[in-house]
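Hi P.,

Sorry for the delay on this. The queue was packed all week, but I finally got your sequence through. Input first:
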Amino acid sequence: MQKLKFAEITRSFPDEIPQATQSFSDSLHSKINRLEKGKDFARILRHKKIASLIAFISQHSPFLSRLILQYPEFFCEICIHGGDYCFERLKKHYLIMKPASSIELMREMRIAKSKASLLIAVCDIAGLWEVEKVTLSMSEIAEISVQRTLAFLLTKAAEKGEIKLCNPYHPEIHCGVFVLAMGKLGAGELNYSSDIDLIVFFEKEKIAYTGSTNVQHFLSKMTQEMVRMLQERTADGYVFRVDLRLRPDPASTPAAMSIAGAITYYETVGQNWERAAFIKARPIAGDMECGYQFLKQISPFIWRKNLDFAAIADIQSIKRQMDDRGSRVIQLAGHNIKTGMGGIREIEFYAQINQLIWGGRVINLRESPTCKTLATLASIDMIERELAEKLIASYRFLRHVEHRLQMIEDQQTHSIPTDPLLLEKLSIFVGYEKLVDFEQALVTHLNFVHDNFQNAFRGRSSLTADEGKLSFTGVENDPQTLETLKKMGYHNPASVSETIQSWHRGIYRSTRTKRARELITELTPTLLKSLTENPDPDQAFMRFDEFLSKLPSGIQLFSLFHINPELLSLISTIIGSAPAVAESLSKNPNLLDSVLSTNFYYEFAGKDALFNELSNWLLVARDFEDEINIIRRFKNEKQFQAGVQLIKHNSSAQATSHYLSDIADCCLEAMLHRVEIDFLAKHPDAKAGQLAIVVVGRLGAREFTFGSDIDIVFIYDDRLDNALLPPNHSIYNKLSQRFISSVTSLTNEGRLYEIDTRMRPLGNNGALAININAFAKYLEESAWTFELMAYTKARVMGGNKGIRKQIRSIIHENITRPRSSELLAQDIVSLRQKITAEYGSDTIWKLKYVHGGLLDLDFLAQYWVLCFASKNQNIITASTAQVFKHLVKYKFLDEIEGNKLIEAHHFLTSLFAILRLCGIGLFDPKTAPNGLKQLIARSVGQEDFPQVEMKLQQMIAVGNASFKKVIG
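Then the structure:
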């Protein structure tokens, strides 16, 4: 007898065949005997495992029993060759068949669907295929069915002269009409007896319509015919039931809808449930290129660039409506395992809510399958791995039960039977010998899923004031509330109470909607408690009120706080100690989204990791304008992360400066690359990679701070292979100007950086970009001392490897030239006098310009590099502190003096960084809030603010003494 691949790996079935199945077995053998291979097949059916499988199916599924009797030869082929082989052969036959008429196609599709249903069920029941393969296989059959039907209808329309096709052999190519699969079909998770959710869209301009009506009427009629061919019941059954109601406003729109109309709808009135639905959307038939382009166009509707916790309420509202249709407690008999409490839909909603919230930021979450989404959430630490594994296990179990329910009579049912006998039969069909074990397993899964769904997005309940009552209703202050506020630490409780009452009256834009006021009411006790952690709670509260007054809207932010109340503590800290950061947040509250990223408080990422992350962000950009906004958003979020870590003392000022420098490097390099691509498309005379940028100043030294501008010199190499062609200098000046505009222009995401190009040869009188040969000649013959000093901190980025290497070599040669230390000192003293005359040095809080401050420390380092680099090139490094270390190491500087200078530089840069973070130009201790003074003291490792001032005097004295001794 032929080897039975299927029988060897099938699950264990009872060897004894129940008597009740004998008549079915006899009928099957009778049909088999009449086949050409009857004798061979009869021997196969006598195999104990196959006979047990047949008996098991006949006991529990009348539908599958009918299919086995209808297609006995195909059933035997499955037993011989196995499910995988037969399924692939079935699909291949399905794809190549050439029906002559719609009747013939409908019949062939129904036969193929029936065979597929039998094959998939047998592989499922036999334990050969996991749930995911079962649902994916059913989805593949549905996808092919839609493809064949649409292709047939397009071909017939072309034969009638209604349309012209680009390729008669492949009518779907560039046809302008496509079918989106939604729901379970879109995700490749079609259940056993599911209907399919489809939306038909078309791009009018691509359709060569030659009929007598119009494109809209023609395609709507064709869509209706496609639905009829798929779902009409004939003597051969049906293919799939079709639901078109997920299209925009289905009650008033035609069956097929134009892309233009759909985009307008989604951009104006699209709802959160539609966003959730589109997570699973994918083109499955027709003009696939057009379909993917459409999804890209509406991507901003689906994937919000900011975290959208307000969407949670909409999704939970949909779930509550489903719960209202059923029992509010889990009762097994009659329970709906799809939409009921703890059912499949709650797992899907849980995954989709997380996708709606995070998918705009985490591209890996933009996937359809539920289990894959849960696994991804765990892999990026959004949820616990154990939780993901349990939810996946529950999902598979419930889908397994769902399939058994639907296999009984091919009905779209999800309800557990109420009849005890039917319930017991179902438990055996699912795979349990005892009903009690099945009931326990099912209830355990349902309870776990429901508890997780209920608790996942509820948010912690607002803290109640331990001191007593808090009530802000009415027009008069509540005496008990005032007493509670006083106990909490507020010195002017009446003012606090009146301000909160004004919020409830919708005095600000952020509190004008009913939902916003409901949320802020729930958050108020937690907020008040958080603000008392500041040295002056009243002042912190008034700053929060100011923050609230500047918000453009409230629901999104208040929803964020509601789900993540710990953010209120961070807001409290920022408002109490860094008012400039709070003001920045009020203009761009979406910066708080980044705090919820799992790596926000981790050690800062390196430059390579940052660049890879930015590259991933840019993958979803639709055009150049989108790209420059994405780069700005990336910079804003990473810079905010650096600021918060500095405020919370998770990072030193030096580490923060390096991180800010890496962020700037990544953003500038990405911007230059994209500007070049866009520019070269319009100016083919320019050559890619021929323009490089040299950064000097703080970015060059990797000592970047908050609010620093960037000193840039543009250098290009226009030497051409063909010497007969004249160089085109204007091209690279235009490219440089385009880069500056892209970096400095103000968009909705703000400005990327301010650019200063005055360090280029001849300053503002010179060309914006300079030829590399001219640059070399200028440095060698004409550069001023202050320019050579600046180039000791130079770094090269952009351009190709060759031009970067040449520029570094040119700068290195000029820095390492021997020079007179006396003349160099005279030039530096003259420059310092000019700077003092312009900026003054009358207060120690002018950290940069005060004598002995940051400028003098930089000048010292630059002086020593220019003096000694000809003797030892190892002292050349961009960072001032590193120069001091190298000077000590190579015996150019006394160790004691060097360490004092390093300490002074460390202290001043730490102080400078925190003041720049807080947006303070010239710090005035007399007017600075206490919270800011405490933040400054902690940031520089001092116990209190008076010690900060004392230490500052000492460090300035160190710098001033060295400057006078060395330079004069």
